[in-house]
Design a protein that fits this description.
The chain is built from 27 helices and 13 strands. A hairpin with a 2-residue loop joins strand 7 (338-345) and strand 8 (348-355). The protein has three domains: 17-229; 246-453, Rossmann fold, CATH 3.40.50.300; 459-567, no CATH class. The chain is α/β, with parallel strands linked by helices. Strands 6-9-12-5-13 form a five-stranded parallel β-sheet, with helices on both faces. Strands 1-2 form a two-stranded antiparallel sheet. Strands 3-4 form a two-stranded antiparallel ribbon. It is elongated and about 100 Å long. Residues 257-455 form the AAA+ ATPase domain.
Amino acid sequence: MTFPRLGEISLTKFTSPEHVLDVLRDVEPGSTTALELQTNLDAAGQPGPLWNDLAAYEPPLVSANVTADDDHLVVDNELLRAARTDRGDRFLLVWVALCLADARLDAITREILTDADGHLDPAVINAVKLRATLDQRSEGAQGAKATSNILSLLERCQLIVPNKYGGSTVGIAQVLPTANAVRGAVALVGERLADQGFEAVPDRAVDLAVSIGVNAWLNLSVEEFRSAYEASDNVTAQSHRDTLPDSLAELDAQLRRKGQVVLQGPPGAGKTYVATEYVEWATSNRLEDSRLQAIIDGLPTNQRNVTDIATEVERRGLTCVWDIVQFHPGYDYTDFVRALVAQPQGDGVSFVPRHRIFSLICAIGEELARRGHEADLVLILDEVNRGDIPNIFGELLYALEYRGQAVATPYAIDGDASLTVPSRLRVLGTMNTADRSIAVIDYALRRRFVFLDIAATAEPINAFAFDADLTRQAALHLYSITAAALSDAPSGLQVGPSYFLATPDGSESSLQVLSARYVYEVLPLLNEYEMEGELDPGIVSGLRNDLAILNGLAQRDQVTGLVHHLSGQPWVTAVTTDGEANDDAANDGPDGP
């Protein structure tokens, strides 16, 4: 889209956003004239024709030949309103006004400084690189002075914090948030273009701004720009939790007392289910909306920092922020706490310390506490026993025990090498007691965590919403005989109820799904126990005999055999050809364990 531009800033004479805003702060719309504005800008040492670049007039300017000497009164606009009230987006709106006024700066921003998505390109935010590019384009904006002015404007208009070497910009140390300026930018662009006859269709002001690339001026993708505009008018009321369920009372009490709990139990006992149920309650039934990664993904890339994440938590009215990680043998401190991350800088890279999940959630908790926002934080550590605990936690084992005390780390972020675990952070681990790697759990970790047992019981099977009573009775039967077969084994080697919960899947009935889970998941698990010497030889073959599962058949045929066996039990009176019970088929089922 092209449109007339009555202004044209000087790329070789530096414009100071600070001095410009000082002048604009005192402008009185309807009283201040163009000449007075230009006189005040001249007195502040600002180059012309900023009087035309920053303000609109009555009567409207109809030609680029109009001068400040002509009798025109300043009309109020969004930039003037931001300057008068010292609004937080005022510096960014100066940048928007300059890009809007000058086709060269607009083109340089969209075609050189930013990538195809509209984000600033770190490799180009470099004095040497940018000057070479401008010289090559030969657009009249070449030269060291123009390069220096553009990079300085990016800094002074609060788009970036630059990396500097010897006073020269060599890269980006930090991109600054700009989403707060989106609504003001849309208003300013609409006003300035309307002055020149480019009226936006009602409810299409954002489309108009995007069509001329305003998103790139603010270091945002089109999607981020649109989302920021919608979010600026969308503040969610503070959520409130329901009453704590009795089933979670012990877990909640131990988390508040100790801060760290490990849910331990055999496979399928429901450890992750209990952890998720707790988070569901803690987040006031806003599980997905409250996940840290989802919050980060919903923010523009230049707002994915502690301060803006905390602001988004407040805006959403969240009662809890949570996330989950899974430990494994290759997981270490630089995956979990902090790490050095390669970042483009000029023609090379620099290594910058960055938060990982634990450091980030701690920093967010500290920022929320500083603001007085009482959101809890929950971090789930799935399969905690599978990780190398000393290598993953490092000095944090001390920090977990002494909440609120700063602990030194190897990496300084924003000049601070310390990390503090906030009092409202709950760390919730899960541990499979059948996993032989539990032997390597660090004693220091055991001392700092409360270990709560999640027993394998038939209760979840009784409570599950099966689609057919036949499947419920079959599930209870399988669970009962399996538990009986493992009665002499350690409690940690039981098979939990989640293996026996089944719903129809496509053309397969719930009974077929249940039988498949037993053949493909439960029996191989029991075989592992037997091969590791945890079960007496013959237990698995005994189960197979009781269930008429022939060992020599292919697994799919074993599933079919188990379906027929379960369908023919005494507690089934009639069965359809596909293995589902008729409505009158259910009598009293087998007793639970």
